[in-house]
Design goal:
The complex is a heterodimer of chains A (123) and B (932). Chain A contains four helices and no strands. Chain A is elongated. A two-stranded antiparallel ribbon of chain B has the order 1-2. Chain B has a two-stranded antiparallel ribbon with strand order 3-4. Classes of the chains: A mainly alpha (123), B mainly alpha (932). Chains A and B meet through helix 1, helix 2, helix 3 and helix 4 of A and helix 27, helix 28, helix 29, helix 30 and helix 31 of B.
Chain lengths: 123, 932
């Protein structure tokens, strides 16, 4: 089971990071979402996996570590706020700049544009 | 009696006085500025008697004890000498500057800088704690920067100030390192402890390093070779500044430091080599160059460098008598050099020029000033009956009596005599070129005597030169002995300062120097021609070039690092993360830990396979945004199942609710964004990004696996034990959120509220492109609010609200709580928006979401503050059990009120985001500008 969860975390991280490295805003937002799943699962897993544990006190069941759960709970909510902010920001950026590239402008050549060119454009 | 801290404090307060008095007439402003420094001087004088009798005062006040920083002051003979120099010459300079500065100069600002500098100097010489000394040391660098660049409209002033700041500032950093090493070696940063542990420092392994670092600090400050170049360029300062900083005080700070550490650092061969040779080199170079400077202040600047070198050389000789001579020369140099600078300032002021090729024959026009300047210049040359002669004799005697260089020991007195010869020559040039030697050439003004009181400071200083020179034992012996004994921190050597020691070697050397100086000066034309063959190197240009090169290098580095491409930044950050995390991962010998693992069951396996497929689908079809979004939402659902599977019902509920809200949000956003991502990345970039991503994923998987297979050592036992008894709840997760870590949650909901408001601001006034159909050109459905959906959701609303109320109420003891309940309520309301439209909701739901956020935060905060009423810390919780007929037993806890705040904030923030985004397409949108 631990192997499965680790695999899940690894796969989610991989996809999340790859999407974050894209040039347009929407895939980046999706990447952030996937990456926060991975991070939340990771923090959760740091409390170790317990099946059929006690959800509350005063039962005979084993009590799972509550601290990572509490951390992840707020992380989920804050993660939502962050995703929302990122996506609205990208909407606003598209509305104001006319494109949805993360740099606010579409590079001339898709590949490895030189720094000087970006600087020139800014001026 | 008074406390020592009053001395720097008085002058620190004194920096404000001239600023307040800056609109008064200038004489009054000068008077006001001098009140507090004069008071400080009087206070010091009340202690002078005791200090000269050998007493030494220290005071300690706690400041930052953990880093060894105390507010500690010290007044002993050595500090007293410098305090008197700083305050007396400072007061004279205040008087002098009153006449020197013109009407256009802001005299209040000038005095404020000057007295700030005075404070910094007093702080250095009176510090008992070395860190505190260093702070004041840096303050002198900064305040001298302000003074040198006082005429900030002049490029040379700005450049000179920058150069001085850079050089002395870098020296200051070295000094800090040296001080910290000393503190490390001795175990204390207090001077008294350090002065008592000289042997320990000299024997420590760090001795060489400490010495070099401290010397870097001292040599940069005191303009010793090879750092001497900043001083001539600091001459762009107004002349009162030069008279104060570059003769009497700031450049003496380095020497002060050498003297202060003399008992601790000196006495070794390394000290002699580093200090002695630096001093000797500086002495010779300064004296030689001074002769060729046509600028009056330039000559004085190089002469100062030379005399500082002489003092450093004396300290470098490792002999107590040498240190005494050094102190004596500090006093003498301060008096004659300050008066010479002031005289140069008068000449500049009254003639409009400082160029000795123009200034000739001024004797006729200003005989009184000329007399004063000539006496001071003769003191500089070391002519008998003047103070410079006495200390120069002592210097000669010291060079003769040393034998560090073995058979070559004769070289030192010879070189000293050569330095003195040039000193005589440039002093002569100062006298002869300026006051005699024909008629003035093309002077901008007709020279005349300065105002009466502008001469007063010069008179006082020149009188001192004479008095000390004629009757040294009356005037200066007590001060000299007091300062020397506290500098040496041990027995005072036998010495006798007198005019006449008989016909001996030092007198011979003096005579040779005087004769030689006259000869050199008379042969000056040939020498000037010889010197003219060398290219004139301007330190300012070279320094600027160096600075420019540094700027170029860092600009290139900066450009490579910050290209403006977000993708590049993220990639660099990720690659760095990979490198940093690879190191500890490699050092773990075994991936699998000893903890027993759980067996994988078929259901979990299937769930993970679905998750994996959905993730891969998101990855592959990420350019088809709708498909990618569906993939991601499947992932989110499975994640919430994972939480449920592993005994975290609260998380599962939260994740589910958030998932719903997120997907709605992203779908709304997708409406306004392109439906497809163009293909931009080249195959090589895709491979590169995939490689980095896969490596990171592999790392994360490895770390997770290694973590999960190792035993758990958690701090949660505390929470588990105290949740019921201390927090009054059995749902530990909720108790942690609203009680144990309530302060964190309070911060969280604040952030949530801020994010909501930020998004609201982003949405307002947004100029939108609204597509009329999807990517394939199909128009949107005309039936925006299907009847069935509307009816069913309206029926569902009360149930949904009831569920959320139930979830909220039971949260303390069963899975649930404010976060989850808030999300459920939000989803229920959003459902109504979707099903019935904004128009429909507007008339029925009269909630202002900003107010809701504010109300939630207010409730949470007030609950927290409520515990203050009972004398408890913020957010202390209270709970009790009650009994009501019919309802039975129930529990009330203050944490529930806090949770209510959480609940309201979550609803407010979520709806503020979604409802505002949703109504962008409707006429209800707030202040939307139509696209141009």
């Amino acid at each position: 089971m631990e192997m499965l969860i680790s695999f899940t975390i690894g796969l989610l991280t991989t996809s999340g990071v790859f999407l974050i490295l894209r040039g347009r805003t929407f895939p980046v937002v999706l990447g952030l979402t996937l990456l926060s799943y991975a991070v939340n699962l990771f923090i959760f897993a740091s409390g170790r996996l317990v099946i059929d544990g006690a959800a509350v006190l005063e039962t005979d069941l084993a009590v799972p570590d509550p601290l990572p759960q509490a951390l992840v709970l707020t992380a989920i909510v804050i993660g939502f706020a962050m995703t929302a902010f990122a996506v609205i920001l990208s909407m606003r950026a598209r509305a104001d700049l006319g494109n949805d590239h993360v740099d606010g402008q579409i590079p001339d050549t898709p590949e490895e544009i030189s720094h000087e060119m970006i600087r020139e454009k800014r001026k | 009696m008074f406390a020592l801290f009053w001395i720097p404090l008085l002058t620190l307060l004194g920096t404000l006085v001239p600023l307040l008095a800056r609109n008064l007439p200038r004489t009054l402003c000068a008077l006001a500025a001098s009140i507090l420094p004069a008071t400080a001087l009087l206070l010091i004088l009340t202690k002078a008697g005791a200090v000269l009798d050998g007493a030494s005062f220290t005071e300690h006040y706690t400041w930052a004890p953990l880093i060894g920083l105390e507010l500690a002051f010290r007044l002993d003979g050595y500090a007293l000498l410098f305090t008197l120099l700083i305050l007396c010459i400072g007061l004279l300079v205040i008087l002098y500057a009153r006449y020197y500065l013109s009407e256009q100069d802001s005299i209040g600002r000038f005095y404020a800088f000057l007295i700030l500098f005075m404070t910094a100097m007093l702080g250095i010489v009176m510090s008992e704690n070395l860190l505190q000394l260093w702070l004041f040391w840096e303050l002198t660098s900064i305040s001298s920067f302000l003074l040198i660049s006082f005429w900030s409209h002049r490029s040379d002033a700005r450049k000179g100030a920058r150069m001085a700041l850079t050089v002395t500032g870098m020296g200051g950093l070295a000094l800090l390192a040296g001080i910290l090493l000393i503190g490390d070696t001795v175990g204390s940063l207090n001077l008294s402890d350090i002065l008592a542990s000289g042997d320990r420092i000299r024997e420590s392994d760090n001795y060489a390093l400490i010495l070099i670092l401290v010397l870097l600090g001292a040599f940069t400050k005191s303009a010793q070779f090879p750092f001497h170049f900043w001083l001539p360029h600091a001459m762009a300062a107004p002349t009162p500044v030069s008279a104060y900083l570059h003769s009497a005080t700031m450049v003496k700070a380095g020497i002060f430091l050498l003297g202060r550490f003399f008992p601790v650092l000196s006495g070794t061969e390394l000290w002699f080599i580093l200090v002695g040779f630096t001093g000797l080199t500086t002495l010779l170079i300064g004296a030689y160059i001074a002769l060729f400077k046509h600028d009056l202040k330039g000559l004085l600047a190089y002469s100062t460098i030379s005399h500082l070198g002489l003092i450093v050389l004396l300290l470098g000789l490792n002999s107590p008598l040498g240190a005494v001579a050094a102190i004596f020369h500090i006093i003498n140099h301060a008096t004659f050099k300050a008066s010479l600078f002031m005289a140069a300032g008068i000449i500049d002021h009254e003639t409009g020029s400082r160029d000795m090729r123009q200034l000739n024959g001024l004797w006729k026009y200003m005989p009184y000033t000329a007399t004063l300047a000539i006496v001071a210049a003769l003191a500089m040359a070391g002519v008998p009956l003047l103070n410079g002669f006495l200390s120069k004799e002592m210097f000669f005697a010291e060079t003769v009596s040393q034998n560090y260089l073995g058979a070559l020991s004769w070289a030192l007195p010879v070189l000293a005599t050569i330095g003195a010869t040039f000193s005589v020559a440039y002093s002569l040039r100062f006298i002869h070129d300026v006051f005699f030697n024909g008629e003035p050439i093309n002077l901008p003004k007709t020279p005349h005597e300065p105002p009466r009181y502008m001469k007063l400071p010069v008179e006082v200083l020149v009188a001192l030169c004479l008095l000390v020179g004629i009757a040294p034992s009356w005037i200066v012996a007590d001060l000299l002995m007091g300062a020397s004994s506290s500098l040496l921190n041990g027995p005072l050597p036998e010495f006798n300062i007198a005019l006449w020691h008989g016909f001996n070697m030092p007198l011979m050397m003096s005579l040779i120097a005087l004769t030689g100086g006259i000869l050199i000066y008379s042969a000056r034309e040939g020498l000037f021609a010889f010197q003219a063959q060398f290219a004139d190197r301007d330190a300012k240009i070279e320094f600027e070039r160096l600075v420019q090169q540094l700027i170029n290098v860092s600009t290139r580095f900066y450009a490579a690092l910050e290209s403006g491409s977000l993708q590049r930044y993220i990639l660099l950050t990720l690659v760095f993360t990979l490198l940093v995390s690879a190191i500890p991962l490699i050092s773990i010998t075994q991936t699998t830990g000893p903890r027993a693992t759980l067996p994988a069951d078929p259901v979990s396996l299937i769930a993970v396979i679905i998750l994996a497929l959905a993730t891969v689908a998101t990855l592959i079809w990420h350019r088809q945004r709708m498909i990618a979004l569906i993939g991601a939402s499947v992932v989110g659902l499975i994640v919430s199942l994972i939480f449920a599977r592993f005994s975290a019902p609260d998380l599962a509920l939260t994740q589910l609710a958030v998932e719903v809200v997120t997907v709605i949000l992203l779908m709304l956003a997708l409406f306004f964004l392109p439906q497809k991502t163009p293909k931009e990345s080249s195959p090589s970039r895709v491979v590169r990004d995939l490689g980095v991503a896969a490596l990171l994923g592999g790392f994360m998987a490895t770390i997770s696996y290694a973590l999960m297979t190792r035993p758990l050592e958690s701090i949660s036992d505390f929470f588990i034990t105290n949740a019921k008894t201390g927090g009054g709840g059995t749902n530990i997760v909720n108790v942690i959120l609203v009680d144990f870590r309530g302060f964190d949650t309070w911060g969280e909901i604040t952030v949530l509220g801020i994010a909501g408001l930020g998004i609201y601001k982003l949405i307002r006034r947004i100029r939108l492109f609204m597509p009329s159909g999807d990517a394939s050109g199909r128009h949107w459905s005309k039936d925006a609010h299907p009847l069935m959906l509307a009816r069913v959701s309206q029926a569902l609303l009360p149930i949904a609200l009831l569920v959320s109320a139930y979830i909220f109420l039971r949260g303390h003891n069963l899975p649930g709580g404010g976060f989850i309940a808030g999300l459920i309520t939000s989803v229920a309301i959003i459902q109504q928006y979707i099903a019935n439209g904004v128009q429909f909701m507007k008339g029925r739901l009269l909630l202002n979401y900003q107010w809701l956020i504010g109300l939630g935060l207010l409730i949470a905060t007030l609950t927290g503050m409520g515990s203050w009423l009972f004398g408890r810390p913020f957010l202390t919780s209270w709970f009790d059990h009650f009994h009501l007929p019919l309802l039975g037993d129930f529990e009330l806890a203050s944490a529930m009120l806090f949770d209510l705040g959480v609940y309201l904030t979550v609803i407010g923030a979520t709806l503020l985001i979604l409802a505002n985004l949703g109504q962008l397409t409707t006429p209800e949108r707030a202040n939307v500008e139509e696209p141009h």
